[in-house]
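Quick log. Single chain, no ligands specified.
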Amino acid sequence: MGNTSSQALERSDISLVELAVIVVRWKVLFFSVFVSILCAAGVYAFLSPAKQEFVGVYQLAKVGDGEFLSDPEGVVSTINSVWIPELVSENEKNGQPALDLLATHPEATGLVQLATVARVIDKDFAVTVNQKILARLHGWQSKVFKDRSAQLERRIKRIAGVIDQLQGSAASGEALAALLENKIEFEYKLDQMQRGEILSEASLGKNQSSTPTQIILLVGLLLAFVLGVMLVFISEFIFVVRKRVKCVE
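-> predicted structure:
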């Protein structure tokens, strides 16, 4: 058996039979490494906490079709760069569980999606965090809506006052028509305005964010086999080298 392995290592190629002979020769080492790595992967797979994605959705306030009171990308940037870091820092100080939060903006919509990844056992805390951020966003949008509504109402009121003054004077019909057109336009915008609203606070994502147990076990199985074979060949190489050194001596 020693001659077989020595001849195999001397050539640049190796047959499956010779490979099997070498593995059998070091079967104790191979199975020790294989079982150890596979057991470690199994322990990691079953002890690793399962995580779940919780998604909150908010509809931004808008003036009309496709026109929003706040730039959706700007809102998302503010949430990701200011609000979330502040909240994470606050949670760390209070010893709260770690969460992964990210706000996104689906293209061509006025929606803001808040994705929170947390352990399943921290579901209630994740929902609370989503509610907190969405409530802050709702307060912001309510203020923006109120300010824009008040602005439009003031414009309508001023135009109505000018129209009343011109109606009692010798003003041209074109001037009155232009003012009436502006008044109708602002009234239409005011009527089309929609408040922002929370569509969903923390609905479950489609898939769990944690790596499935089957994948972890499969990767562990492949890694255990590859490392086992590598260590077998390294051990065989060292054995052959030592044997030749003794022969030379």
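The chain has seven helices and six strands.
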